[in-house]
Amino acid sequence: MIELIHLVKKFGDLVAVNDVTLTVPRGEFFAMLGPNAAGKTTTLKILAGLMRPTSGSARVCGFDVQLQPLEARRRIAYVPDFPFLYDKLTAWEFFRFTGQLFQMDDTGIEANVQELVTRFHLDDFVNQPLEGLSHGTRQRVAIVSALLHDPEAFVIDEPMVGLDPQHARVVKDVLKERSAQGMTVLVSTHQLSIAEEMADRIGIIHNGRLIAVGNRDELRRQSGSSGQLEEIFLSLTAEGK
Predict the structure, then answer these.
(1) DSSP class per residue in the chain
(2) d(CA 100, CA 77)
(3) How many other C-beta atoms lie within 10 A of the C-beta of residue 25?
């Protein structure tokens, strides 16, 4: 499970995340929507342990990300919107390196890599240096490496960046399957269609605040709109609110 508890992050006078509290239970697929500079990416970086909150806390499976970082990180995977990969490594070398970071043995790494590589159509690329791969292929490599240790919580920022429709479908299917098997999924995206198609619940963040949380019917009631998710989103994030 993922817990954000009165999370605040300030950059000087700018309040990027403003008292965000959220619980995402085991096995839920949760989508976080928001305009540019709403605070989505900052929230995810705090959850991943890459940034310290000004106040408040984040927990993964009951472990505080700041106070118990190793226990939290064993259970979480994080894929940023622009993943960092070691360009001189081949995809296979990068997978092996990632697995070893999570203290996986070679047998476990190889078994998980083979299953995921086939599923993500990466068989032709595993022995190629990462620097020569397309952006979409690198994105798939990043997602496979994040899934390699069977995380209990999976956090991804803009998952479909650079992916063609075929591979976007693969990512959607795999994440939804893993969620059904108990993995908690938190996706931050600008693409309303992803949230509408896949999420059990949706959170809308605006000006650093989590202003609405719920399924589509609950969001309709909160927004006073009876339309599609786009109309609900625009109503809740309208200037002046």
Answers:
(1) -EEEEEEEEEETTEEEEEEEEEEE-TT-EEEEE--TTSSHHHHHHHHTTSS--SEEEEEETTEETTTSHHHHHHSEEEE-SS----TTSBHHHHHHHHHHHTT--HHHHHHHHHHHHHHTT-TTTTTSBGGGS-HHHHHHHHHHHHHTT--SEEEEESTTTT--HHHHHHHHHHHHHHHHTT-EEEEEES-HHHHHHH-SEEEEEETTEEEEEE-HHHHHHHHT--S-HHHHHHHHT-TT-
(2) 14
(3) 12
User: What homologous superfamily is domain 1-75+152-241 in, according to CATH?
Assistant: P-loop containing nucleotide triphosphate hydrolases (3.40.50.300)
pLDDT of residue 82: 85
What are 62-76's pLDDT values in tens digits? 999 999 999 999 999
Residues constituting the chain: 241
Q: Where are the CATH 3.40.50.300 domain residues in the chain?
A: 1-75+152-241
For residue range 29-73, what is the model confidence (pLDDT) as tens digits?
Answer: 999 999 888 999 999 999 999 999 999 999 999 999 999 999 999
Name the one residue in this structure whose structure tokens are 């620097």: 131
Q: What is the mean pLDDT of the chain?
A: 93
What's the pTM value of the predicted model, to 2 decimals?
A: 0.92
CA 138 to centroid of chain Cα atoms: 16
Average pLDDT, integer, range 181-186: 97
